[in-house]
Amino acid sequence: MADLAADQGELLKTSDGRPLKEALAQAQSKAKWRAFMLVLPLLSFILITFAWPIAQVLHQSVYNPRFSENMPQIGEWFRTHPNGTEPDEAAYTALVNDLVSAGAARTVAVAGERVNYEMPGTRSLFTKAGRDAKKLEPPFKDSLVALDKDWGSPELWGVMRRVSSAYTGDFYLAAIDLERDANGAIRQVPENERVYVNLFVRTFVLSAAITVICLIIGFPVAFLLSSLPMRYSSLLMIMVLLPFWTSLLVRTTAWMVLLQSQGVINSILVWTGIISDDQRLVMINNLMGSVIAMTHILLPFMILPLFSVMKPIPPSYVRAARSLGATSWTAFRRVYLPQTIPGIGAGGLLVFILSVGYYITPALVGGASGQLISNLIAFHVTKSNNWSLAAALATILLASILLLYWLYDKLVGIDKLKLG
User: Fold this and answer.
1) How high is the pLDDT of residue 128?
2) Cβ atoms within 10 A of the Cβ of 379, count?
3) Cβ 255 vs Cβ 293: under 8 Å
4) d(CA 345, CA 392)
5) DSSP state of 83
6) pLDDT per residue as tens digits for the range 41-94
7) Which H helix or E strand runs over 414?
8) 31 and 118, same domain (yes or no)
9) Cα–Cα distance between 402 and 22 in angstroms, integer?
10) Does an H or E element contain 187, and which?
11) What angle do CA 113, 118, 121 make, to 5 degrees?
């Protein structure tokens, strides 16, 4: 039968004499290409503005050629001599030649800055040697050590060996408060230098707290919006959307005025007699300021997904449950709440992910104790010029968000997430 149908398909032809099967295949191919060309502008935009920058960040986190490009001869010596080899006169000769070349090209500070990432205080060592390298005479080992005894340090040579390769995973170690010793073994940094892990923990805990607070405040607001008549709910919805029409910087600055010690809130509390003048609350430049300001800014992102799933829920469901003997709490818990889970998941993910990456508000309102990992990433990009460490921190943050997304998909199901 199958052979007969195939033969009939071959016998059937279009008006221009082509086999019907071939004409259908060509039409389907044209339809696919037409659909592809329609989405091509959007696909190109996503690849150029989203996927390519992320790929650049991932590459930057493991690639830093500042030392390898400017100190090629000592890099070659490291490649031809195994780890643990004590630097000989040939190594010091190669180092001096590189210092002379880099000094002439004015890139000694660039190479020194790369070493300084791993061993603070060595940038000045390189710049000083770069200025005096032309004056050094053989034997170069004695000349360099006489110039500065740190040139004979095994730790310095161990660091130079590690940074002589343009590709390295050490920035990821630094991003989780780890480092390598002179022998290359991984160890924790001293306790007073452990910054990044604590900031990651603070970021995720603070983001989770803001998400819970937004849910607690936003759930009744969304319920009220969904249950009121249209003329009243529309008015309240304008109030919910109003913050979107105001600049984020303006809103953050307004909270600075409200929360400071001599600000509006403290002045009202003193005026009403709730607190005395010497008991003014400290609500700015700390975690409290970050939580208050970020909760206000991110609250609409929780309310809107909740409203979108609450609005279609028929009130008759809860009334039917109560008519069958369920209490108000039981009807809410077993009938109404499960239908709002997609909105809770969508709002929770939105608020949490936005909280993790927030930068302006913690920087202005949070102070030193209220800043998040995003503020430190910005510091390494704009101040310390350590883009590789900033990229490693950003990659870890991205991986954490993707892990959260995966866990949500496994536990709840991403197909149940609704934004509208």
Assistant:
1) 92
2) 15
3) yes
4) 29
5) T
6) 999 999 999 899 889 989 999 999 999 999 999 999 999 999 888 999 999 999
7) none
8) no
9) 45
10) strand 186-188
11) 60
CATH number at residue 399: 1.10.3720.10
The average pLDDT across 337-355 equals 90
How many domains is the chain partitioned into structurally?
3
Q: How far apart are CA 146 and CA 152, in angstroms?
A: 9
Model confidence over 257-297: pLDDT tens digits?
888 888 888 888 888 888 888 888 888 888 888 899 999 99
pLDDT digits 0-9 by tens, 97-113: 999 999 999 999 999 99
Q: Is 298 exposed, middle or buried (0-12, 13-18, 19+ CB in 10 A)?
A: buried
Whether 205 contacts 198, CB under 8 Å = no
Distance CA 232, CA 4 (A): 68
Residue 87 token pair = 């630097």
Q: Which tokens is 336 given?
A: 């109404």
Q: What confidence score (pLDDT) does residue 4 get?
A: 45
Instruction: Specify the pLDDT at position 241.
Output: 86
pLDDT > 80? residue 5? no
208 residue type, one letter: A
**Cα distances (angstroms) measured from residue 387 to each of 77, 360, 382:** 27, 20, 9
- One domain, residues 261 and 286: yes
CA gap 269, 276 in Å, rounded: 8
Region 180-185: mean pLDDT is 78
147 and 170 both lie in a single domain: yes
Q: Which two tokens stand for residue 211?
A: 């998400």
State the Cα–Cα distance between residues 285 and 368, nearest whole angstrom: 7
pLDDT of residue 214: 95
Q: Which domain holds residue 20?
A: 2-60
Same structural domain, 364 and 402: yes
Mark whether 81 and 32 lie in a shared domain: no
Q: Is the dihedral of CA 24, 28, 29, 34 positive or negative?
A: positive
pTM for the predicted model, two decimal places: 0.83
Residue 146 belongs to what H/E stretch?
A: helix 140-147
